[in-house]
Amino acid sequence: MTDLSHLLQPDRGQSARMIHIVDPNGFDAWLNQQPPRHRAAATAQKLTPSGFSSAILPGDGAEDWSVVTVVANVDSLSPWCLAKLAETLPEGQYRVEGRDPGAAMFGWVTGQYRFERYRKEDRATGPRVLLSSDPVAIEETLRQGSATLRVRDMVNTPAADMGPGEIEAAAAELAKQQGAELTVTRGTELERGFPMIAIVGQAAAKGREPRLIELAWGRADQPKIAIVGKGVCFDTGGLDLKNSAGMRLMKKDMGGAAHALALAELVMTARLPVQLHLLIPAVENSIGAKAFRPGDVLATRKGLTVENTNTDAEGRLILGDALARACEEAPELLIDFATLTGAARVALGPDLPALFANDDALADALSAQGKAVSDPVWRLPLWDGYDEMLKSDIADLVNAAEGGFAGSVTAALFLRRFVAKDVAWAHFDTFAWRPAARPGRPKGGEALGLRAAWGMLKQRYPR
Length: 463
Fold this sequence. Notes:
Elements: E1 8-10, E2 17-22, H1 27-33, H2 36-44, E3 54-57, E4 66-70, H3 83-88, E5 92-96, H4 104-110, E6 128-132, H5 135-156, H6 164-178, E7 181-186, H7 187-193, H8 195-200, E8 211-217, E9 224-229, E10 231-235, H9 244-247, H10 255-269, E11 275-285, E12 297-299, E13 305-307, H11 315-328, E14 333-338, H12 342-348, E15 354-357, H13 360-372, E16 378-379, E17 397-398, H14 407-416, E18 424-429, E19 433-434, E20 444-445, H15 450-460
Parallel strand pairs: 1-6, 2-4, 2-5, 5-6, 9-11, 9-14, 10-11, 13-17, 14-18, 15-16
Antiparallel strand pairs: 3-4, 7-8, 8-11, 12-13, 15-18, 19-20
Helix pairs in contact: 4-5, 5-10, 6-10, 10-15, 11-14, 13-15
Keywords: Aminopeptidase, Hydrolase, Manganese, Protease
Protein name: Leucyl aminopeptidase
Domain Cytosol aminopeptidase: 310-317
């Protein structure tokens, strides 16, 4: 768990620079009440009543200055309203005038994230520390911030350094930290028990062989929940080879695994009263003499047969075996994360994970929590009428429907075939990537849907 405690500290009255906040409705009144030197400074720095606009306000001495920033609503601070300040202010300690920063602490923490594993130069500035009088909120913010940074770090890491073995190592480290039991299935046992996971990854180089990673935590008398994450560490598309543009970001195709690990970390560090089962099918979809072929009929753990109509629709194959395994333990709740379809991005763009669920109450709770914490999701239908698109002439179903219609829906319907009907299930088709930077949200790997799921779990299983 990444230690972010140097960015948020309890407010014990220590010396700190003041952050004044104002919203567009109160901007003119605030400006008119300021002394002339503050009005002059605001004008010189082009302070405007628009979001993220800010200005340094001079004090009596050279070091006696404060800062003002414009937020959308001073009575309801968003996670991102102070994030730009966290990116741009000099190092030091800061306090929000007249109130606790609340939700804004999250953006303060995530706004200072940099992926620097491959950079030689040192950072030019030290940490900006925000003070809060709410120790419980500090603890929760640090927990969520650490989980978010786990996703970002894993997704940003190139495939050469984030293969199935590295995901296994991350799960093993988490299991050791939290006292969980780790099980890894590979080789002939994987071929026999999880044939779709094995066949998708069978062309990978030595050392990057496919495997199913499972982690178990919690007491046997607590409610069972399962979290599954797609761990395709690089996706060439297989023999249905992607073009260079389509392959460029495929290091992020293990983003579902990163989300699943992060959510499991949140569950365990918060000690939710649940019995957790984490499953990550980890593979590399490579090309070579051993690559699986279009037209092959695949066996599955559930006993269904799948005609492989597209080797680039491999994520749903490995998830199918993992979902079937998860349901064998009869969980009352099952959540999966996957960077599954381009169709979801066409429909919803990069910011909104597509949410599918077989339970309306579960979908409503996830949507409500996403809205509450500024981690929005958008529900798409498990439209029964499209099930016929998965029909095969020679097997029980195909993995990819022809024609391209409703691609994210048919992918979710494929997954549904491997979920027990009495298990409440939610599927996140997430992008795990931010193509352009925003305050608190740098370009690159991103946790999308993670905090919505975490909010739902906290609400459903209170400590």
